[in-house]
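Milestone 3.1: sequence recovery, worked example.
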């Protein structure tokens, strides 16, 4: 029995509908275990601080309980994950290449038809593009059950003079033009493929379809090393509590 709320859900009042855009099942995920994740279609970033809050949801749409699983929340490029309620920080040496921050959420079981929502705190550098990735793995091992992303949040219409900037899921960010400068690269509208993610993460961006098996190998290596860390972390916490 765990004494710390690793898998506790933190339900947030998030009026924005969720989306599994950019998500795909893992290459060896059981057919009856239909796990998925959702991210809000829109988030808001404070222009003064770069802070943002969003809800990451994990769902079990299958006909059987999941047993122990792990949801990991990873930040890439201009998007950094600063906290996930009920979850623990992934050490820097366990992060996949190309990611900057991560939090792991151990869930002892998610019943068929159930879901859990986690409040995610982040910062976003509006001068850059930013992405997020949500892999779900079996237990503390290396079997990938689902992965959403890396998918971008961004806007083609910056609002530097407003209190905050709304960012849309699946949209590459176009920074506001500096005084007398240009607005940056050509915008990407929602529904277009996400930029190529790091080779250590499976490419499951918008319209990518089936998870490429070879690309998955890099994340499986990451998951395996994280799994060892997870297992040792849980055992240590049991001994000390």
């Amino acid at each position: 029995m765990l004494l710390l709320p690793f898998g506790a859900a933190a339900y947030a009042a998030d009026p924005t509908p969720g989306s599994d855009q950019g998500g795909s099942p893992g290459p060896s995920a059981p057919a009856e275990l239909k796990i998925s994740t959702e991210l809000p279609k829109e988030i808001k970033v404070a222009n003064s601080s770069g802070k943002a809050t969003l809800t990451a949801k994990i769902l079990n749409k299958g006909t059987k309980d999941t047993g122990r699983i792990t949801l990991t929340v990873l930040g890439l490029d201009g998007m950094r994950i600063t906290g996930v309620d009920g979850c623990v920080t992934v050490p820097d040496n366990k992060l996949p290449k190309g990611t900057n921050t991560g939090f792991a959420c151990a869930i002892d079981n998610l019943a068929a038809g159930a879901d859990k929502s986690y409040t995610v705190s982040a910062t976003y550098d509006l001068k850059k593009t930013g992405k997020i990735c949500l892999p779900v793995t079996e237990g503390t091992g290396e079997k990938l059950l689902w992965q959403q992303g890396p998918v971008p949040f961004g806007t083609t219409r910056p609002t530097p003079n407003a209190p905050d900037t709304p960012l849309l899921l699946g949209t590459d960010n176009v920074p506001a033009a500096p005084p007398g400068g240009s607005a940056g690269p050509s915008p990407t509208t929602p529904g277009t493929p996400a930029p190529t993610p790091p080779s250590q993460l499976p490419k499951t961006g918008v319209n990518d379809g089936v998870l490429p098996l070879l690309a998955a190998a890099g994340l499986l290596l990451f998951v395996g090393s994280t799994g060892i860390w997870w297992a040792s972390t849980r055992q240590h916490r049991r001994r000390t509590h």
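The helical segments are 213-240. The CA atoms of residues 72 and 170 lie 19 Å apart.
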